[in-house]
Amino acid sequence: xxxxxxxxxxxxxxxxxxxxxxxxxxxxxxxxxxxxxxxxxxxxxxxxxxxxxxxxxxxxxxxxxxxxxxxxxxxxxxxxxxxxxxxxxxxxxxxxxxxxxxxxxxxxxxxxxxxxxxxxxxxxxxxxxxxxxxxxxxxxxxxxxxxxxxxxxxxxxxxxxxxxxxxxxxxxxxxxxxxxxxxxxxxxxxxxxxxxxxxxxxxxxxxxxxxxxxxxxxxxxxxxxxxxxxxxxxxxxxxxxxxxxxxxxxxxxxxxxxxxxxxxxxxxxxxxxxxxxxxxxxxxxxxxxxxxxxxxxxxxxxxxxxxxxxxxxxxxxxxxxxxxxxxxxxxxxxxxxxxxxxxxxxxxxxxxxxxxxxxxxxxxxxxxxxxxxxxxxxxxxxxxxxxxxxxxxxxxxxxxxxxxxxxxxxx
Length: 411
Prior knowledge:
By secondary structure, the chain is mostly helical. The chain is 78% helix and 0% strand. The chain is built from 20 helices and no strands. The protein is elongated and about 110 Å long.
């Protein structure tokens, strides 16, 4: 047993020594960096050199200065590889369009990373940038092509691939020169970002794109911005953008509808009606504006005002189902209130008068709810319970029995 134990121990030790001996020695950073520079000079084995160079970034011993060197050299290799494809195109040989543009994108990204490391302080806390002028000059040289890359992917409807190109183009502009293409680029950047749920990217250029756009396009871009803030949970900016949208683009109903609903949720009914009144003054009044006032009055149990504005809504849009619903519920609630407060003494003359008043309100509610049923026949849960109560109190046997069966089927 003792001999067996010693044998196993010796075996484990020998395996450990063997594995250590077999592990390849890590190549020095200086050697990898030198190989990358040589590949760049000779324009040979550049892809392999680039991969090895970027692989050194995981080494914890690398200083910020060395990282900046890596990123800048990687950008130069990207530029050189892009040039290889460009030469093929110039010589009318088969070339890889995707690789051509993607190498430019990679170059811009590595230049960005170079800049971000280049401004970090050294061990003594000093900041000495070495690459700013070089990276700036290199980017400007390729701006047209970086925009072309965005257009290339935009035409393919590959919006996630298009966005980085437009982002780079817009971020690194030459402030000293006029650039009419910048306006279009901000529009394409915002569109590409929004269509890929890149909400930070949507917000980044939305205002710039809006400032250059006609009213119809600007309204859509403003909507993108609002939706982006909503998706990011930026509530205060979402509300502010909605308010801005209603003021600047009163004809674009999205802003009014969203803001009116928000006021409803906040129980700020006066603010909701004030908003509706401002939009009515600006646009001449749309059905949706009068409906919002009707809904706000219903929420405050001001039933007669609710009915009046529901009628105004229906006058503009005869199939506005929610207006019929509001009107029907208002009459139904008035009937219930009247019924509860009515005289209960059958011998009292007031009993007949109260009953007639209640019946009259149920009769007013009936056509409204029946219209809701016609317009939304599948939404049983919306109109069936109100019609049940209406038919019951109007003693409409056949109609009541039909609704009663329907409600039992819904259980």
